[in-house]
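Worked example 4.2. Below are the chains of a multi-component assembly; read each line carefully before continuing.
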Amino acid sequence: QVQLQESGPGLVKPSGTLSLTCAVSGGSISSTNWWNWVRQPPGKGLEWIGKIYHSGSTNYDPSLKSRVTISVDKSKNQFSLKLSTVTAADTAVYYCAREYCTNVVCSPTHSYGLDVWGQGTTVTVSS
Amino acid sequence: DIQMTQSPSTLSASVGDRVTITCRASQSISSWLAWYQQKPGKAPKLLIYKASDLETGVPSRFSGSGSGTEFTLTISSLQPDDFATYYCQQYNSYPWTFGQGTKVEIK
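Applying the procedure described above to all two chains together yields the following structure tokens:
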């Protein structure tokens, strides 16, 4: 079965760039599924950041769009998140997650939710 | 953005109780709603998608209903493993948004 594993620095300086990678095992990133990033600030709820298809197509939360880049590396079967100009408000547990889709476009009709999640990685923004 | 509002924020219940959590969307999302369970220090777990479809492997005591703007998650007989926080999430339109969560506590 598909498993996801996040990795990256746990501490980022303010105004710096947060960079995380999600390794996909047990399945190919080049499937009909989309690959997502979700975060959870300490003691708070879940926030969707964005998602990517193996072709490179993306969808981002507009509130983060100017600072976010999600990319895919098919040769390594992994995808990545970069968040620039970070502040303390970006301190959170970051999760990668698979959206199970039965169609390339993955309209709601063809989406079966975020069915596989990584364990999460804590990123703290502090000097 | 579509705002998702869950109620209650906290729920105290006993093992064996029937529990219902409500999620309201600020505009119609048809049936494009998922429910997740999250335990402390763990990643969320998908329970239900498309408002009422049970994810494979999820116990049948969990059920979902609703469409449009009002949805419910019901646990028919609360088990010790069910004490957790539950989130709804809409995937009708971008950006996807989650409810603020409902914590189910032991009474």
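Take a moment to check your reading of the output against the notes. The first strand of chain B starts at residue 4 and ends at 7. The mean pLDDT of chain B is 97.
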